[in-house]
């Protein structure tokens, strides 16, 4: 009788553990705007890249304007034609789906100097005869926004990926909880 009870509890514990591994394959997508370019990546909640996923960029009317395939690291890039709200949808053939909204406020005007591709652009831009830099406040704001997006975007992505990973302490705590319930159940049955 006790062996049957222990066997039943072990089956329940294994079933619960197996269901947590199935849940760890939850698809995630993250994206951010840098200038007029959308950078993003698709991944599973365990941190594995979703290289085989299909990524769609949808406009405000929910029309697909571009379909992308992430690279082997799960990363993708899209040059947005205008500043608008875009919905990034990642989808796998086995039914996993994830969405991320890029708001039009995240895009810069597009008249900024592209310092990433041309580091000399700032020194070559609109120099006056006294060699002081002539930049309008709007241009300066756009330069700062682009630089901040370039630095903050990857940090946001890393923070999101870290939050999605299952922690070892969570797994050990879950296993301990299962064994605690099984032990309590066996104690209760033996007491009766």
Number of domain units: 1
Major sheet strand order:
4-3-6-7
Proportion of beta-strand residues: 15-25%
User: What is the average of the pLDDT values?
Assistant: 76
Per the CATH scheme, the topology name is: Immunoglobulin-like
| Gross CATH architecture | Sandwich
- Count of DSSP-assigned helices: 4
Rg, Å, rounded: 25 Å
User: What is the terminal-to-terminal distance?
Assistant: 13 Å
* Biggest beta sheet attributes: 4 strands, antiparallel
Coarse morphology? elongated
> In sequence order, what are the helices and strands, one letter per element?
HEEEEEEEHHH
Structural class designation: alpha+beta
The level 1 CATH classification is Mainly Beta
How is this structure best described in words?
The chain contains four helices and seven strands; from the N terminus they run αβββββββααα. With 192 residues, it is of the alpha+beta class. Helix 1 packs antiparallel against helix 4 (168-191). It is elongated. The model is unreliable at 18-24, 111-116 and 125-130 (pLDDT under 50).
Key descriptive features of the protein:
alpha+beta, Immunoglobulin-like, four-stranded antiparallel sheet, three-stranded antiparallel sheet, 4 helices, 7 strands, elongated
Question: Could you outline the blueprint of secondary structure elements for this entry?
Answer:
Layout: H1 2-23, E1 27-34, E2 37-44, E3 54-58, E4 64-68, E5 75-79, E6 86-91, E7 97-102, H2 121-124, H3 137-164, H4 168-191
Helix pairs in contact: 1-4
Compact overview of the structure:
This protein has helices spanning 2-23, 121-124, 137-164, 168-191; strands at residues 27-34, 37-44, 54-58, 64-68, 75-79, 86-91, 97-102. By secondary structure, it is α+β, with helices and mostly antiparallel strands.
């Amino acid at each position: 009788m006790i062996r049957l009870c222990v066997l039943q509890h072990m089956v329940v514990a294994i079933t619960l553990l197996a269901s947590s591994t199935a849940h760890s394959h939850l698809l995630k997508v993250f994206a951010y705007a840098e200038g007029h370019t959308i950078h993003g990546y698709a991944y599973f909640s365990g941190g594995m890249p979703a290289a085989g996923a299909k990524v769609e960029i949808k406009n405000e009317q929910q029309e697909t304007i571009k379909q992308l395939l992430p690279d082997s690291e799960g990363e993708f890039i899209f040059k947005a034609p205008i500043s608008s709200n875009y919905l990034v949808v990642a989808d796998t053939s086995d039914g996993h789906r994830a969405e991320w909204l890029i708001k039009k406020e995240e895009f810069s005007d597009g008249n900024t100097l592209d310092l990433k591709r041309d580091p000399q652009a700032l020194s070559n831009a609109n120099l006056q005869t006294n060699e002081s830099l002539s930049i309008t406040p709007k241009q300066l704001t756009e330069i700062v926004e682009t630089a901040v997006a370039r630095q903050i975007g990857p940090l946001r992505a890393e923070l999101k990926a870290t939050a999605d990973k299952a922690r070892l302490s969570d797994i050990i705590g879950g296993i301990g909880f299962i064994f605690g319930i099984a032990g309590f159940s066996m104690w209760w049955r033996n007491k009766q």
